[in-house]
Structures are given as structure tokens and as C-alpha cells.
Amino acid sequence: RPHLEYALLDVLYPEHATTPVPAGLIDETAYTQPALFALEYALASLWQSWGIQPDVMLGHSVGEYAAACIAGVFSLEDGLRLIATRGRLMQALPRNGSMLAIRADADRVAEAIRAHTASVSLAAVNGPNSVVIAGESQAVQAIGELFTSQGVEVRALTVSHAFHSPLMEPMLAEFATVAASITYYPARIAI
Predict the structure, then answer these.
(1) Which of 9, 120, 123, 187 would be a feasible disulfide site paired with 135, CB 3.0-4.6 Å?
(2) Integer CA distances (angstroms), 82 to 3, 13, 42, 189, in order
(3) Smallest Cα–Cα separation from 121: which of 56, 27, 129, 131?
(4) Single pTM value for the model
């Protein structure tokens, strides 16, 4: 709560909010990221309460923070501070980027973005033929059009910013300062 302007429960359930919350706030990454983290952490805690103990933790993006927290790399309080700071810093960046899911293999997509590496990156490899790119909107759109012209399925992701791209670099120094201020422990569960 101390890291967000509005209580996360009020953002998630505005009809039960104790104070008025602006509409659509959950779609802003400053709130989306803490909400995802809270959900992931809560689910893992629920499973653990049922006796399901993981042998290995893994995650992507916000999921990496939840996995590290569950594994004991940092406290829940520090995990919440990290993810709230990450969301706030990303939210403050210009909205000049986009993300695109492409039904092609990572090598093919990497080759297609090679000319745009200053502004576009391979954001995620979700499977053998499931790749996400992120970066400056015009370059991402041009790459998408190239794949579409080749008959490859392309889908724009509904995001506020181009996460996992060079467009995130302006927030790294401030985030590194916060990340350096927390206490880290050896993982109790392999990550």
C-alpha cells in the first residue's frame, strides 16, 4: 500500500472501493504489475498451504519476481517494493512502443529484427513457434507487416509500453538503485 497512490484492492474491486478510483487504472502498468505479482504470490502460497511444494521456481517478467520471492531470494515486502517501483518507472516512460506476437521460430524473428536492434528486441520466446517482439512502434509495425506478407500469423498485444525492449533503458538506473537497497538471500528453492 505505501508504494501505490490507490489501494490495490480498490483498483481490483472499484465497486467496493473505500475511496473513488479512476476507471481503467488496472490497465496501467503501475497497477497491473503489482496486481499480477500479488495474484502469482497468492496462488503459490495457496498451493503451498495444500502441501504442494515446488522443486523449481520459474517465471517470465513479473513472474520472475514472484518466483524469486517464493524461493526466498528476498522478502515479500522487498518484492512488493521492487515490483511497485518497476511498474511506476515503466509507467512514467513515453508510450511510443508496442509488442507483437509472431507465430515463427526465434531464429527467423531474430533475423528479421537484426536491422532494428537499436529499437526492437526479442521480448519473449514462449515456444518453438511463439515469439514476442517489443520496441518502437513504427519498427515493430514494419516487422509485423513483413511477417504478415509471408503468411505468418501476427497479433498485436494490448500493452501500454514496449516491455523487454530498448525503450525501457531510461528507467534502469533508478530501478538499479532500488534493487541495490534490498536484502538478497540464497534461494531456498532452485530458480
Answers:
(1) 120
(2) 10, 23, 17, 20
(3) 131
(4) 0.87
